Amino acid sequence: MHPTFKAAVAAACLIPAVHASAQSAEPGNLPLWEFGLGAFGLSAPAYPGADDRNNRVLPVPYLLYRGEVLRADQSGIGARLFRSDRVEFDVGLAGALPSDSDDVEIREGMPDLGALFEFGPRLKIRVADIDRNSRVRAELPLRAVIEARGGLRRQGWTFEPKLAYETRGERGLWSVEGNVSVVFGDKRINRYFYEVQPQYANASRAAYGADAGLMLTRVGLFATRQLNPDVRLFGFVRYESYAGSANRDSPLHLKNSGTSAGIGFAWTLARSSRRAAGYEPVDPVTP
Questions:
Q1: Is 158:144 a contact under the CB 8 Å cutoff?
Q2: Domain presence at residue 138
Q3: Of all helices (H) and strands (E), which one includes residue 10?
Q4: What is the maximum alpha-carbon separation in the chain?
Q5: What is the residue-level pLDDT of the chain in tens, covering all 287 positions?
Q6: Residue 58: inside a domain
Q7: Distances (CA, A) of 203 to 143, 198, 209, 249
Q8: Which letter, b or e, does each residue of 36-66 get, where b requires 16 or more Cβ atoms within 10 Å of its Cβ?
């Protein structure tokens, strides 16, 4: 699969979330599906602890679907298996963009890092309703990490407990979310990022065997602004600390912190006349 196409596929997993997270309609008045075009620019570390960056500008189509079970919305792509007023349990899919080792100096001569897809269960808890437009939620996702590079291969598991605060303006014209999370990974995903096998060792990159454990601590801020009923802008900034990570001694671990930022838009081209029945997710203050 061509790297640009892999990046576009991973991006298509992200656009529904950033567009739907601030829809202004009331839960019972949302269309069952929406189709549109989106584009975003992203700058992020090539991998956690990298000195080089991954910069992308990508246009992608997107589809929102708000079924009782199957969904592609602000929570990602997946299936909602249980829902109550305070708790929701689903199985979902997320994506991350690839990195070419030729563009990452410390990894030169090593295998590329392919596009990553994360699939698995997630428990969401509505912790507190601050007021009509603001709430606090917790998430407990456990994800299998699957790499798309010359086929599909599993690259371990991650666990990312998260606490988020979200608020919106009247009529849903804008929304803001702040969140903090920590990411733990098993030995396999840490080996994927930080292990240096003997055949890839050199004078500046000693052989290293990675361990399971903490990968990073993350703080993020995400915001959207509606321009009209069909067009919405979005942006985010994120700070990550790798100082306490289990593999900070790896020669591929070059920085103790990293920042990511992105900006984009989503433009709805068509929507169904049929309304989404019984649709009210635990997480967003705006569906």
A1: no
A2: yes
A3: helix 3-12
A4: 63
A5: 444 434 444 455 555 555 555 444 444 578 889 999 989 898 999 999 999 998 989 888 888 888 888 887 766 677 888 888 899 999 988 777 778 888 899 999 999 998 888 999 999 999 999 998 999 999 999 999 999 887 889 999 999 999 999 999 877 789 999 999 999 999 999 999 999 999 999 998 999 999 999 999 999 999 999 999 899 999 999 999 999 999 999 999 999 999 999 999 999 999 998 888 755 555 554 43
A6: yes
A7: 36, 12, 17, 16
A8: bebebebebbbbbbbebbbebebebebebbb
241 burial (CB, 10 Å; 0-12 / 13-18 / 19+) is middle
For 83-109, the DSSP string reads: E-SSEEEEEEEEEE--B-GGGSGGGTT
pTM of the model as a whole: 0.85
- In-domain check, residue 286: no
Domain extent at residue 158: 3-271
Number of domains in the chain: 1
User: Token digits for 110?
Assistant: 């090593």
For 84, residues 6+ apart whose C-beta sits below 8 A from its C-beta are none
**Do the domain assignments include residue 119?**
yes
Contact between 237 and 261 under an 8 Å Cβ cutoff? The reply is: yes
CA distance linking residue 210 with residue 194, whole number of Å: 6
* CATH code assigned at 88: 2.40.160.40
Contact 76, 63 (CB under 8 A): no
Q: Which token pair is 23?
A: 């829809």
Q: Report CA torsion sign: 68, 72, 73, 78.
A: positive
Residues in the chain: 287
Instruction: Name 145's bridge partners.
Output: 118
- Stated as kind and residue range, the H or E segment containing 15 is helix 15-20
